[in-house]
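Risk register update: the risk of archive-format incompatibility is retired. Evidence:
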Amino acid sequence: MSTNKPIPRPGSAPRVGAPARPTQRPAGAPSAAGASAAKRPTPKPTAKPTAPPTLVKPAPKAKARRARLLVSKVDPWSVLKMAFLLSVALGIVTVVASIVLWAVLDTIGLFDTINAFVNDIQGQEGGTPFDVLSIASLGQVASFSTIVAVVNVVLLTTLSVLSAWLYNISATLVGGIGVTLTDD
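Archived output:
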């Protein structure tokens, strides 16, 4: 025989040892406790309110985990890509720095001072006056620094890949570089 009793939902049944919930009354209906409370003055609290106790204790500080790993192989392709990007960035910095340096030197008048100094040493009989800007103009400095930057990109990329290849060979013999990692 089956009985059709409703199954209580979780949280709707009173807990063991917990006071039962008061029943709700309509908004307009006075209660006996409300009527007697309206007649009495409410007492003033005499003690200072205390802070509620913390419900959650902080977790104890865990020890830092440590892992000892070996770098046994370096992928030459990833080294090539990373070295290329870093050397291109270094090349851009080289070109910009050389142009900025030339502009600063021109602004402070160093090239004019060098021209005057060399012409004083050369004297009047020297013929044509010396001009340092014919040797080191802004275009020539930028071109030279660009050529140096391109050569550096090729050399640094090649040397990095060669270093990765030599590391892989030596790591097969020795075992690699030991690294200790922690999670602080």
